[in-house]
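Please produce the structure of this protein holding acetyl coenzyme *A.
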Amino acid sequence: PKNVGILAMDIYFPPTCVRQEALEAHDGASKGKYTIGLGQDCLAFCTEVEDVISMSLTAVRSLLAKYQINPTQIGRLEVGSETVIDKSKSIKTFLMQIFEECGNTDIEGVDSTNACYGGTAALFNCVNWVESSSWDGRYGLVVCTDSAVYAEGPARPTGGAAAIAMLIGPDAPIAFESKFRGSHMSHVYDFYKPDLASEYPVVDGKLSQTCYLMALDSCYKRLCEKFEKLESKKFSMLDADYFVFHSPYNKLVQKSFARLYFNDFLRNASSVDEVAKEKLAPFSALSDDESYQSRDLEKASQQVAKQLYDLKVQPSTLIPKQVGNMYTASLYAAFASLLHDKNSSLEGKRVIMFSYGSGLTATLFSFKIRDGQHPFSVSNIVKVMDISQKLKLRHEFPPEKFVDTMKLMEHRYGAKDFVTSKDISLLLPGTYYLTEVDSMYRRFYAKK
Ligand code: ACO
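Below is the modeled complex.
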């Protein structure tokens, strides 16, 4: 099979959200800290009737219906998530309900977990399967689903929630350039979830930012090396049309792109103009460690990279800014934003994707956008996802109600023997929701 990649996509995020401007005021943070400082507009969250399982049921059902895929045509289903509902039973098994109905239980794959990287692991597994000798000709399906919630404090505004479903197969409009790839993996404690009684992570915010940027540098160097070996020319940011980043919050994305610019400067790549060279020259002798700490470098590189950022990164920032960090779905929601913004003008373009999961695992990889055959074309994917409408139909909660919801969810986490309020008035038709967790911790869902 050739040009294996993403044939179709759909995205779901909860209709309930809180404005960062309101949250900022409510938390007593200085004005502009969440909106300008973190670069975020809104944060979506699950109320008691939604969770990672209901969101992924909604996304999968919707994708199959809108692209008219019969559930029997799926041969592999992989889920990426870091939201733990059960330590043994995979989210994938909950999704099997959709396929069992049609008599299809012959579906490989389970869940992949490592912070925000699980979705990328799931995607690579599916692509590898289609490219392998065990492929049986059917489609692969990847689901990224997470509810990102933090304890009260500085990390709370970087929460979010969403599920994304992606259909995998050959002759895809979003094809992998599998040769151009660089990974960086190591053992660190920047963000982790050791307390199994709590949904909240333990997070060293500053360390996680530095780890993210170090991993990006390392992946970029490796991707450049591979590109140069295969293409016999130096890689620079000009060789890619767009860069899409895992987006915990937009400010880190701005810093990341600036960091790539600084890398190009150090490698004397063609993307850096004379003015930029002059501005960055004072930082060329910094050690790696010093360079992560230098506020002046951060500022100077963001400034010189600004014009390219607007062209190559900004179009992928809509959903992450509006929904927040969606953990495993974050990178793919950023990619969906790019599709939404640029639509069929993406044909022939190269998109570089950066996936980061704390702990840590990171990969920089490349997509080539191709002309697709209906229903598997970029323009149809954009139509199906209908992002503007989904954003428009949301309901803003006041911060107090958001905080109350977080408290209720803390209480419900790991609990049994309860029914939900079944207030589903805010959910769109076709949305799955949680109705009950029985005395055996078994979870029950219904569809609106
Ligand atoms: N107006 C404008 N900007 C402001 C204002 C204001 N009133 N107040 C603060 N800022 C700026 C700061 O200068 C800073 O920007 P800078 O980094 O460009 O200087 C930014 O707002 C954030 O302020 P900090 O004081 O650095 O924020 P704090 O330390 O309180 O929290 C953090 C930020 C660490 C990101 C926290 O939200 C967090 O821990 N989040 C979760 C961890 C995370 O997402 N890590 C990323 C990778 S790992 C992952 O994906 C989970």
